[in-house]
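Worked Example 4.2. Read the sequence first, then its structure tokens.
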Amino acid sequence: MKILKEKNAIITGGSRGIGSYIARVLAVEKVNMALVALPGEMDLLNHISNELQGTGAKVITIGADITKKSDRETIMKRSESELGPIDILINNVGIEAAACFIRQEEEVLSKTIDTNLKAPILLTKMILPGMLERKSGHVVSLSSLAGKVGTSYQAAYSGTKAGIIKWSAAMRDEFREMGVSFSVVIPGYVAGAGMLADYREKAGKEYKPPPLLGEVTAEQVAKAVLKALKKDRMELIAAPGAMRFFMALNELFPGIAAKISKVTGAAKLNKEMAEDL
């Protein structure tokens, strides 16, 4: 979609972090949007909505739990009723936790799988028929470099994010001749948002990513989402050059990422966060 003006989008996880930055970037493009977050985050959603007033984009807010079918139906019905046919879906919502896998409760594992993988797939399935009927639409899903390599103390999270990458690739292949496209954006460590920011707040401790791997900003990730939409890119890695180089190496030599994780200190960082919380 080279021209995004007056397109209608749904952004899950739109109340804070990367989701709020995606909303800001799309508002500049005059994209109308439904910002979705848990009902308990309506104040944050409304704050973002108020911030975007005057951009020319129509913004509505929806409090919903995307893991629930009835809430997904509410998202779709309200979005189409108040905005019109949905042209863009941004599957951004996600949860992550650094923990020793054997110590994670089944409820936590199920919630991780439902939120990160199952719900985005089912929400897409609900919205996709309208896109196919109009022969136009784009779904962008947020994954993580953990889904590319699999990282220790993030086993369930890594698995769900790997699933999003492969699911997006399969959907793109299946529907590419029908006018609907699929992309995946893969961030590394994100400054001020994501896991590190959440853990800094929970533990009251300044966790720093390994210097060799570095960080990107939430705004850079949002701009990668915009690039995926405008240039119809299949996969975009939003990470410093060194990290992209390591990922390329891992594609050629599977397993090397585990060694890189150990050498750079990424594995040590994950273990530290898991033990602190």
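Now turn to a second chain, presented in exactly the same format:
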Amino acid sequence: MPLYEFRCRACGARFERLVRIGREAEVGCAACGSPDVEKLFSSFGIHGGEKDVSMSSSSKGCSTCSSKSCSTCH
């Protein structure tokens, strides 16, 4: 089951919920119980332990590989 982020239109609370695909409409607000919630597009950071991965389209390549044309950075 995917993890989705939601925002309640009634109280403004943001929360995450594991939801079966196609059943997003059944989710209610975790704070106030309102059924008026919207699914948000979540962004995530890519971190490799202690080292951050730089996603760049420069010709130098990325910090995690020696290739100058990997699918991660280009």
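Notes for the reader: The longest strand covers residues 3-8. The two ends are 30 Å apart (CA to CA).
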